[in-house]
């Protein structure tokens, strides 16, 4: 997947949603924000990541110190600011070298790690905007599937950072199966907590979980990202639904 091109495309699509909406519109999936705050969060986040990479920082950057971290007041200029921020991430990675170690909240990673991270920040916040606006949210199966995998990679760090209980009880597992044609093993995820351990791991394996969800990659993406309830999608759920609810309750990003 061309993460760089996808980041620019998703940023453009997000910007067009913002352009069409009421700045004060409440975002139900981000209850403390309106559309303007969602826009500023994502746009500044790209500049934040770009500055960390470009300055070769060894720790997090205070968001208040992001260069040009506030969008212009005028609408078209604000959208240009948004697009420029995404390009800054790509430029910073190119200039530093994609394999150059960079700070991340998961520890040092190649600078290119940030491109995928910012891409899926774009996809999920585009979903936030679309759901608030009552607009269609289309996402290719390949991109949705990659977003699920990217989130699952972050789960151990999120649990540690947020002080949350493990999202799976001892010996429990979750199986996700995307029904889209052509995904193959990339469209299956088995998430498990082996008996007697305090770890959660996942793999692209077919298996029978304590609970299984079967549906389109787009719907699974929205459910895993806690943007929609399974009941509001075409996802079929099999097994112990309480296991899934426990997962949702303990995987707050």
Class of the largest domain in CATH?
Mainly Alpha
CATH superfamily of the largest domain: dinb family like domain
Strand pairing plus helix content: what structural class?
alpha+beta
- Characterize the main sheet: 5 strands, mixed
Number of helices: 7
Protein architecture, described:
By secondary structure, the chain is of the alpha+beta class. Strand 1 and strand 2 (109-110) form a beta hairpin. It has helices spanning 3-20, 35-54, 75-96, 113-133, 141-162, 217-224, 241-249, and strands spanning 101-102, 109-110, 173-178, 188-192, 201-203, 211-215, 236-239. The radius of gyration is 18 Å and the shape is globular. It has 2 domains: 3-133, Up-down Bundle (Four Helix Bundle (Hemerythrin (Met), subunit A)), CATH 1.20.120; 141-249, 2-Layer Sandwich (Nonspecific Lipid-transfer Protein, Chain A), CATH 3.30.1050. The model has no long low-confidence stretch (mean pLDDT 95). A 5-stranded mixed β-sheet has the order 5-4-3-6-7. A two-stranded antiparallel ribbon has the order 1-2. The chain contains 7 helices and 7 strands. The chain is 47% helix and 11% strand. Helix 1 (3-20) runs antiparallel to helix 3 (75-96).
């Amino acid at each position: 997947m061309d993460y760089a091109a996808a980041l620019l495309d998703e940023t453009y699509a997000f910007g067009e949603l913002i352009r069409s909406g009421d700045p004060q519109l409440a975002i139900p999936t981000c209850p403390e924000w309106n559309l303007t705050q969602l826009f500023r969060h994502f746009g500044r986040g790209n500049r934040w990541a770009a500055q960390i990479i470009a300055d070769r920082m060894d720790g997090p950057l205070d968001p208040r110190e992001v260069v040009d971290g506030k969008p212009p007041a005028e609408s078209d200029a604000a959208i240009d600011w948004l697009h420029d921020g995404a390009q800054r991430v790509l430029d910073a990675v190119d200039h530093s070298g994609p394999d150059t170690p960079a700070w991340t909240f998961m520890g040092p990673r190649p600078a290119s790690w940030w491109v995928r991270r910012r891409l899926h920040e774009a996809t999920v916040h585009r979903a936030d905007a679309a759901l608030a606006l009552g607009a269609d949210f289309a996402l290719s199966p390949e991109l949705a599937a990659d977003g699920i995998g990217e989130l699952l990679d972050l789960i151990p760090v999120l649990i540690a950072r947020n002080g949350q209980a493990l999202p799976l009880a001892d010996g429990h597992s979750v199986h996700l199966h995307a029904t889209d044609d052509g995904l193959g093993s990339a469209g299956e995820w088995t998430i498990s907590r082996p008996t007697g351990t305090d770890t959660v791991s996942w793999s692209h394996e077919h298996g029978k979980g304590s609970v299984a969800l079967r549906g389109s990659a787009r719907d699974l993406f929205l459910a895993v990202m806690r943007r929609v309830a399974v009941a509001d999608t075409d996802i079929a759920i099999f097994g112990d639904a309480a296991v899934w609810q426990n997962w949702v309750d303990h995987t707050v990003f």
